[in-house]
Each structure stands twice: as C-alpha cells, then as structure tokens.
C-alpha cells in the first residue's frame, strides 16, 4: 500500500476542520489539490473516509478509525527522523573505547567526563586491551577508538598525538641501579626486559630500548601481556621495564622503584581510530580528546 505521509497529514487536518476550504487554507494548498489527495488516499485504502454533501463533510467509520490511529503513526515516524538526525550529528549512539595502557592516566577520566557532558546520549563502553595490540583494538574493529601510545605500525589508522610523557625505568627496589639518581639509557638497555609475544615491532623496539642497544636483541627476562604481568615480573626481580612516568609513579608497591633515564625519548599518547572512519560519534570523541589534551 503506497500511502504517503503527506496524505495522512492532510487527512488529519481535514478530519479536524471537516471543511475542504478551511483545511486547504491551513495546508497552504488549493482545494482541488486537497480533494485529489483524499481521493488517492481512499483509493489506496479501498474505503471512503468522508461523506461529502453540498452542506457538510463527515467522517465515515473508516475515517474515524484512521483519525484515531494516524497521529500515533506520524509521531513515531517524526521521532524516528529526529533520532536519525541526532545520530547523524553524533548526538546519540554507542562508542566502544579501547585503552592500551592508558587507563591509569589522569587524562583518561577527564576525557570521559568531558565527552559525557558533550554527548550525554552516547553510551560509551570501555575495554582494556593487551599489549600485543598497540592500536587498542581499533585495527581489528574490536573498538571504535582508543587511547594508545606511539610508536607502532599505523597503516590504515589515524592516530592523533595528544601529549608526551617522559619514560622512566621501573626496577625492583633492590636492583643495583635503584640507588642511582638517574640511569643511562644505554646501561638500562642491557638489562633483562619484559617481553610481549607477537608485539608490533616498532612498539617493541621502542619500549625495550632497541635503539640504545644499537639494534641488538633484547635479553628476555619475563613474558607478559599487560600492566599487571609487567609489575609482577619486575617485583619478582625477573626483568626491568620502561613506562610513562605518570603511570609508573602511581604503583603502590614498596618493592618497586622508578628512576629517570638519561637520553631516552618520551612516549607519545594518541587517540586512534580507523583512517576511513566516518562515524560522527568517533569524530566527536577525537575532537574532544584534542580539546582536553590542549587544556592539559
């Protein structure tokens, strides 16, 4: 049945006025056009909606039934249009956010609070991602956007830098280097390291100080998957690690210590999404991350 919304809207006005002249004036159309619409609607329904005489217009039983149900149908459709417009603008919907070793940052809750204020009708789900996926789940479409650390292979991704963080050494409290005020990066690079299997090569080289060893393979002290494993391995004296300062200095264990590292480039925190991303919610989140980072 090919009933158009304009037919229903015109019908409801005429059903209220019960006068073609007045109804046509309210609809800003000529009376002949209104009559034509009503004939089309009646033809589609296969039933007369009005009894027309020279003196008055009355609703038939079919017209009364349509008058009772049509407003709800139009309201539902209008609501659907409003929701579609809001979704197109990024005002409603969902966002799956990945956190790649960024959950402990004070930046992360500030960003989430700010985004919630800007997009209160967007439902954000959060997932911590293991170290073997430096894209924070974005590459495999596990997440829509992620807060991550550069560098890593960004092919097919869009990663916007937000801020830098000094990298510090994370050591057992009884480690021989723990007594030094600061540690030379080349000296630290020779220690046994925490190791992530199947890790992005650029990320692994950066976090295990490959450049400071002249590209030589790292000594593997312990295999890990995330922060909990990392800290456990270091506390056990199995390995050392390099972490962003704001994260490493929040650890609560007395048997761990951190030290500045001389000659070590900082890490770069970034917001990551797919390079071909067109979802307005994701774009709004990236914009929000940029704004909060600027304030930081």
Explain the overall architecture.
The protein has 296 residues and is an alpha/beta fold. The chain has three domains: 5-88, Winged helix-like DNA-binding domain superfamily/Winged helix DNA-binding domain (Arc Repressor Mutant, subunit A); 92-163 and 268-295, D-Maltodextrin-Binding Protein, domain 2 (3-Layer(aba) Sandwich); 167-265, Periplasmic binding protein-like II (D-Maltodextrin-Binding Protein, domain 2). It is built from ten helices and 13 strands. The protein has helices at residues 5-17, 20-26, 31-45, 61-88, 107-118, 185-189, 201-207, 227-235, 245-248, 280-295, and strands at residues 50-52, 57-59, 92-99, 121-128, 145-150, 157-165, 167-172, 183-184, 192-195, 219-223, 241-244, 256-262, 267-274. Strands 4-3-5-13-6 form a five-stranded mixed sheet. A four-stranded mixed sheet has the order 8-12-7-11. The protein has a two-stranded antiparallel ribbon with strand order 1-2. Helix 1 crosses helix 3 and helix 5 packs across helix 10 (280-295). The longest helix is centred in the first third of the chain and has 28 residues, at 61-88. It is rod-shaped, with a radius of gyration of 32 Å. The chain starts with a helix and ends with a helix. The relative contact order is 0.14. The mean pLDDT is 91.
Strand count, sense and barrel status of the largest sheet are:
5 strands, mixed
- DSSP, total strands: 13
Catalogue the unreliable spans.
Answer: none
Which fold name is given in CATH as the topology of the largest domain?
A: D-Maltodextrin-Binding Protein, domain 2
* Shape verdict: rod-shaped
Which superfamily, in CATH terms, is the homologous superfamily of the largest domain?
A: Periplasmic binding protein-like II
Radius of gyration: 32 Å
Q: Please report which band the strand proportion falls in: under 5%, 5-15%, 15-25%, 25-35%, 35-45% or over 45%.
A: 15-25%
The overall pLDDT, averaged over residues, is 91
């Amino acid at each position: 049945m090919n009933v158009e919304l304009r037919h229903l809207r015109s019908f409801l006005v005429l059903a209220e006025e019960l006068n073609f002249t007045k109804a046509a004036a309210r609809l800003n159309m000529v009376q002949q056009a209104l009559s034509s619409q009503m004939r089309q609607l009646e033809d589609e329904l296969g039933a007369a909606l009005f009894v027309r005489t020279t003196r008055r217009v009355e609703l038939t039983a079919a017209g009364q039934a349509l008058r009772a149900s049509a407003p709800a149908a139009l309201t539902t459709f209008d609501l659907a249009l409003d929701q579609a417009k809001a979704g197109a603008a990024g005002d409603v919907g969902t966002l799956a956010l990945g956190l790649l070793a960024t959950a402990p940052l004070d930046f992360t809750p500030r960003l989430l609070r700010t985004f919630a204020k800007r997009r209160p009708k967007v439902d954000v789900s959060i997932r911590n991602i293991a170290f073997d996926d430096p894209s924070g789940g974005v590459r495999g479409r596990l997440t829509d956007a992620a807060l991550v650390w550069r560098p890593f292979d960004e092919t097919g991704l869009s990663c916007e830098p937000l801020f830098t963080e000094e990298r510090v050494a994370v050591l057992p409290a009884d480690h021989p280097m723990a007594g030094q005020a600061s540690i030379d990066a080349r000296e630290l690079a020779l220690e046994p390291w925490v190791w992530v299997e199947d890790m992005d090569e650029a990320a692994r080289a950066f976090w295990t100080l490959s450049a400071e060893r002249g590209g030589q393979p790292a000594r593997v002290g312990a295999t890990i998957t995330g922060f909990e494993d990392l800290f456990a391995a270091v506390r056990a004296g199995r390995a050392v690690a390099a972490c962003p300062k704001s994260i490493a200095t929040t650890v609560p264990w007395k048997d761990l210590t951190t030290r500045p590292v001389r000659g070590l480039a900082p890490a770069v925190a970034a917001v990551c999404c797919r390079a071909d991303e067109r979802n307005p919610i994701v774009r709004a989140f990236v914009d929000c991350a940029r704004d909060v980072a600027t304030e930081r």
